[in-house]
Amino acid sequence: MNRVIPLLLILALTGLIFIQYRYLIIGLRLEKATFDRQMEEALSQIEDDLEDNNRLSYILASVVRPELDNFKVGQDTLLQSTTIFLQDFLADRLNRQGIAVRFSFSFQERQSDSTILQTSDFSDEESKIGLYTIRPQGALMDFCECVPIIQLRINNLTNYLISQLNGITIPSVLLIMVIIACFFWYVHITKRHKQLDQVKNEFINNLTHELKTPVFSIGLATNMLAAQLPPDKKNLTDLILAENNRLKLHIERVLDLATLDHHQYVMNSVPCKVHDLLSSIAHLATHRAQQSGGTFMCQFGATQDLVLGDQEHLTNAIDNLLDNAIKYGGIPPQVLLSTSSTPGSILISVADNGAGIPTQEEKNIFKKFYRIQRGDLHPVKGFGLGLSYVARVAALHKGKISLVNQPGQGCTFTLSIPLIASQS
């Protein structure tokens, strides 16, 4: 699951970038269409101005036909001044249409296929995108007795069009950058959380292993002490042994859960009959219920009970459910252990007559170390490991654990385990 979420985020981010790219292409096409309409109007105005009998038309004709030159200047000077004059004229007409761009141009005579004048940065070997042709007629054509054309090239047209979309592209780029930054932050936090979780698990495992030695020593010393005490003092050693055994049970649960959480753990799965396992557990559960002044009943209604499972972990998981039912049951506790059949699975249910679980707490009870919030009071001691252990055992057996909760009346936990026939 931890790997699936980053992959989904990468796919979503890639898809978002692709969609934004497609929107950019569509925006550029629309902006290009708008730009072409503006250019069409500007070029039409330029052609109309050059068709009139005016000073610019005569100067351009004089460049083509030097004999018309009445300005008494050298040819180079005439070409240079005409280039500047025509460039200013074209820039003015473009600005009138709201087109403020850098451009280059070439003034050519089509009949002789010669270039009369051009700006230094003009090239006719570049892409045809951004190249526009002006074909003036009228006075200019009459003066020069030729077929003049003006090639007008918009420099960096794509950059200009993108700049017109800055109101869309810049926020989009910023948002994508924020999303990418959040993604890497999520990866960093996830990796950090994984490292901390590993450190925590190693600490807990090391601590519980270290506790096993003093627990064993306390048990051994208490048994030796009990052998030397008079009968009327045995209740003290019995109390010590009971608490020592309870501590030992907690340590074993922590170690069992740590073992199951290890990714390389392989269960010792063998064919086993669930009813036989339950019968071995029922004797101890009956004794615990009677010590609490309650009752314990069994109803084995499943028609098939052969499963492929780890007997030790299945036994511990069911024992956890029974232990919780006795501890959190009513006063006195009434616990029912039952089985039933569904297609391909056996259902193992443990029901109690306790206060139930608050509805808002149901989604959290299978989390490791989680305990139902009761303020600062925890009348029943524990570490919140039992149900998370049961859920992990169910998952490793390709089954599941479910809860039927009736606040004020009790809970029923149902462990579903596939039968061998369905697994094959």
Summarize the structure.
The chain has 424 residues and is of the alpha+beta class.
Q: What would you say this structure looks like, in words?
A:
By secondary structure, this protein is an alpha+beta fold. It has three domains: 161 residues, no CATH class; 77 residues; 154 residues, 2-Layer Sandwich (Heat Shock Protein 90). The chain contains eleven helices and eleven strands. The strands form three sheets. A five-stranded mixed β-sheet has the order 6-8-9-11-10. The chain has a four-stranded antiparallel β-sheet with strand order 2-1-4-3. Strand 10 and strand 11 form a beta hairpin. It starts with a helix and ends with a helix. The mean pLDDT is 81.
Secondary-structure blueprint of this entry?
Layout: H1 4-51, H2 55-64, H3 75-96, E1 103-109, E2 114-118, E3 131-134, H4 139-144, E4 148-154, H5 157-164, H6 166-228, H7 234-261, E5 270-273, H8 274-291, E6 295-300, E7 306-309, H9 311-328, E8 334-342, E9 345-351, H10 386-396, E10 400-406, E11 410-418, H11 420-423
Parallel strand pairs: 6-8
Antiparallel strand pairs: 1-2, 1-4, 3-4, 5-7, 8-9, 9-11, 10-11
Helix pairs in contact: 1-3, 1-5, 1-6, 2-3, 6-7, 7-10, 8-9, 9-10
